[in-house]
Amino acid sequence: MLGNFVYYNPTKLYFGDEAQKNLTAALAPFGPKVLLTYGGGSIKTNGVYDDVIKALQEAGKEVVELPGVMPNPTLAKLEEGCALAKAQNVDFILAVGGGSTIDYAKGVAASAWYDGDAWQNFWIEKNEPAADQRVLPVGAVLTMAGTGSEMNGGSVITNTEQKLKIGKVFGSRLMPKFAILNPKYTFSLPVTQMVAGIYDIMSHIMEQYFSGDDDSTSNYVAEGLMRSLIVSSRAAVKNPQDYEARSNIMWTATWALNTFIGKGKTQDWMVHMIGQAIGAYTNATHGLTLSGVSPAYYRFIMKFGQARFARFAQVVWDIPAEGKDEETLAKAGIDALEAWIKEIGAVANISVLGVTEDMLEGITAATVLGGGYKLMTKADVLTVLKNAL
Amino acid sequence: MLGNFVYYNPTKLYFGDEAQKNLTAALAPFGPKVLLTYGGGSIKTNGVYDDVIKALQEAGKEVVELPGVMPNPTLAKLEEGCALAKAQNVDFILAVGGGSTIDYAKGVAASAWYDGDAWQNFWIEKNEPAADQRVLPVGAVLTMAGTGSEMNGGSVITNTEQKLKIGKVFGSRLMPKFAILNPKYTFSLPVTQMVAGIYDIMSHIMEQYFSGDDDSTSNYVAEGLMRSLIVSSRAAVKNPQDYEARSNIMWTATWALNTFIGKGKTQDWMVHMIGQAIGAYTNATHGLTLSGVSPAYYRFIMKFGQARFARFAQVVWDIPAEGKDEETLAKAGIDALEAWIKEIGAVANISVLGVTEDMLEGITAATVLGGGYKLMTKADVLTVLKNAL
């Protein structure tokens, strides 16, 4: 654990098939007027909405509804939510849904009482709300495992006019105060969405793992989470009603991106940067933009961090090292990753997401540069995109 | 992740070789009068005391000193601290030391304003402080890695008259508000103390790992932590000034016992129960009582949870499974554990700690029963103790 850092994550997690029974008590410390935000309405058919409304009633809350949060929440939708939160002077925002809905709730929580251009201030310039600016507390009821938004300060918003999908990571003020994690709430999700979430988790872990050459405990924990996710993903694809597998996936998602496994080490978020640019162009499901780019990206950077890729092959995929040189072993690890992507039904290239050759220049231009083993140039990104087609 | 649970750990961790620079700011939210508690005075020779006093002065605090916390803090010492905290009406307790000192601070924090028999109420009956009882906030500056007390509610107190060493786990009210984790603060520790701490960490992980046969993400994370600890322990024993190794050990200690890796699974704390009974009889170093008992204990219960022990051999110790039946593999894992205990300079039996045959009945009587793969009887404990001599 080289480097200095702060770990502080005060989100209270209620986990299990009866987790929602804690919602009334969890809401108690907050004010009476609750902005209830959710997505397309699937929660009204699977029973989650009824559970939530019952808890809100038992807690004596006045509810203002804000439905219609889309998979990649837009700036226009953010502005709608801010206007409503302010006009109704709500005390609390309860997000019921997956990462998009929770991301959205945090965006509204930060922006509603900000006087100025919230997009410019929070997402473009990455500023935090000023200490004296009012920020609304957020709670979450999770219905899809993947983004980890339930226990972090992340909020990804898409500016459709500018074709920009940008993530902001707020500090602890914007982390959910609590999250209800009931694995059964994810059972009614279409399998393709489940698989997209699984790959999002895997990518979060890999993007923290594939950087640096120091011996950090964080890497060993990351390997443990990946091993668990791989086992559970196979079980869940076979039987999406496998509670144990779905619960492991949900728990892995939370810990993949609550800052824990990135502590004390460098990270490389290029797969997300490229994936988000693809998402802004195609509106493709987030997790699939990541799986579509990953094999090409990791093959491109492999030679700059070969030892870590060889370790990945051995520890995560149980590939024996005997008789293989480091390069062969490293390649075998990425091959195993690609095979697993196909096995669980995710996509291993981007053309199936609707990306065409003529989009590549635009996607490259929209990609925020960074890197780990290799600092990426625009030309590098273009090469990766061509290889990923 | 079977079962329902709550995860809530709001302790703020400042980690790194400059972590102490955050102490002044960390103290700011709390009242002006600080009870500063520490152990035998080693912090006065290694510079830690000076750093802490400087931060307290910069924060404008009035300091009441309470030195002399012993390795196994006694009830008599607890009562002394409670009387002082109450008489001086302190606002905050700052513990500077290892787990004993932090455990002690939490004990005083819970007990100082309790009207009644604190030992009976908190440690024997395991009650929590009533909601309207005053509890003092605690902060920690860690100088020894091992117990994990810096990020949990645990507090072990020894009643020397009754020869009872009992741990209480308080809820989030008694968790430290913050902890300063500077790996360099552990550099001046004698190597035997470092090794005892390393084994304490390993035991915390194993006691959560060796129970249950469900497929839980917690087990995979535990394996990652053990793999990291083994690598770092070998480096630290070779060179105790290896910052990277000492920092991994410190971080592993915190996460081994902050409730994370035990979530959603059964646990088996018999090694601690037996070790604590030995500690009450011999005043031996805590971590060595655990290493002295572990090989005999795990060999005793192995056949009741053989598959997990075989997995331990493969994943944690990289022992190839080829050509071995499950029992052989399971045994090889415990053999590897015992060899590592000796390699790092811990003890693999209890006679070297001063335990003699005539004590075994008394230690058995003082051992709180429990178990995981095997519910232990008093006769079982006696057998384990005889085998561990």
The rounded Rg of chain A comes to 20 Å
Q: Calculate the mean pLDDT score of chain A and round it.
A: 96
- What's the total helix number of chain A? 14
Distance between the termini of chain A: 38 Å
Largest interface: A-B, 47 and 47 residues
User: What series of H and E elements makes up the topology of chain A?
Assistant: EEHEHEHEHHEEEEHHHHHHHHH
Largest sheet of chain A: 6 strands, parallel
Produce the secondary structure layout.
Two copies of one chain form a homodimer.
Chain A: E1 5-7, E2 12-15, H1 23-27, E3 33-38, H2 48-58, E4 62-66, H3 75-87, E5 92-97, H4 99-111, H5 118-124, E6 138-142, E7 154-159, E8 164-169, E9 178-181, H6 191-209, H7 217-238, H8 243-256, H9 270-282, H10 286-301, H11 306-317, H12 326-343, H13 360-366, H14 378-388
Helix pairs in contact in A: 3-4, 6-7, 6-8, 6-10, 7-8, 7-11, 9-10, 9-13, 10-12, 10-14, 11-12, 13-14
Describe this structure in a few short sentences.
The structure is a homodimer of 389-residue chains. Chain A has 14 helices and nine strands. The first copy, chain A, has 389 residues and is α/β, with parallel strands linked by helices.
Question: What would the keywords be for this entry?
Answer:
389 residues, alpha/beta, two-stranded antiparallel ribbon, 47% helix, 12% strand, globular
